[in-house]
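Researcher: I'd like a structural prediction for the single chain below. Treat it as a standalone chain; there are no partners to consider.
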Amino acid sequence: MLLIASETLRGSQPLNDVVREMSLSLSFFQEAEKLAGLLEGKARRILLLTEQDLDDAVMATLDKARGQTPFGVIVAAESKSLRSSARAGVVDFIVDLANSEWVGEDFDVDRLAASARRCRRRMLKLSRADLEAAFDNFEFVIRYQPKVERSSEAEWLTREAEALVRWRHPEHGLMGPLEFLPEVEAFGMMGRLTEFVLRKAAAQLADWRDQGLVLNGCINLAPSQLGDEHLGERYGAIVREFGVECSDFTFEVVEQDLADPESPQMRALKSLRREGFRLCLDDFRVAATSLGTFEKLPFDEIKIHASALRHARENPVAMQVLAAVTGLAHNLGMSVCAEGVEDQETFDFLKTIECDKMQGFLVSEAVLPHIIRRVYSASNDEVADDVA
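Model: Treating it as a single chain, here is the predicted structure.
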């Protein structure tokens, strides 16, 4: 999918982060004539406009494109301030569009990403029949993102790979999970999809080991699946079919209704632990709710969300809190992983809080299985040139 942004936003770090995170193609325009050219064709597009782009020529271009090509509009301005000016008509036009969002002039990466996802989802119309066809026609595919682990003060090595599902849609091309998982969830197919991912990942681990590459696997587990207290037994039987052990896998779950030790969710997690699977608390943001039940949760690892990393890098107090959380996790026998690591500065920062693992575009994006065979490593001072 193409993201079209105003030329005045070139170099914006939040914009660049969202483009990379959502695997978007990025183009810029300065005049309405260039925008009109970028809107030609049937491909889906998201436009990011600043207040100064909301002129008659751009509105006329959007009005002409409406009904001819699928697009969404995100406005980096405040609608209230514009309504109080002489440009209320422009606000009405934007609001009247079927797919529009407002993020404000001082948007951050989280706000922009959330709006972009909503825009993108409005352009997708997926049915149960589409998903059934995807299963029947083997359109779901798996990509693997390496997770590197600190083995010494001077070296990080790849020991795990996270299995991430993609949909090779016959019309829309390769689609990321955010574009179809809500429908998978809504139609009650999440269990089926997770078992597919688990089988493919178990087969891949066995294949890698036949080639002399020993890696463990990580798989995301949706909260909706944590109502089955026999989940561990079923998943254990699946992985053993392929000659690998339950301990070779980590299931990553987000915290939800885990405070009650007798809740169905906790029983499901404990069934996974009994089988030998490892558990990771995903999307950890150092919130008070997370810390309150930290020591009671049956996890082997916590994964620090990218937004918490960004906040800690910018705020000395937040950095101290994150360092304290890392120390607490270590004292409880948990490892700590950072996700969304995209630059050398973040890599260096992770050393200061004694983070154990990391993954992100600095190391590698999610790749085809054969690319994992490359040697992934990073020195203590600089990420190696051969990291894919």
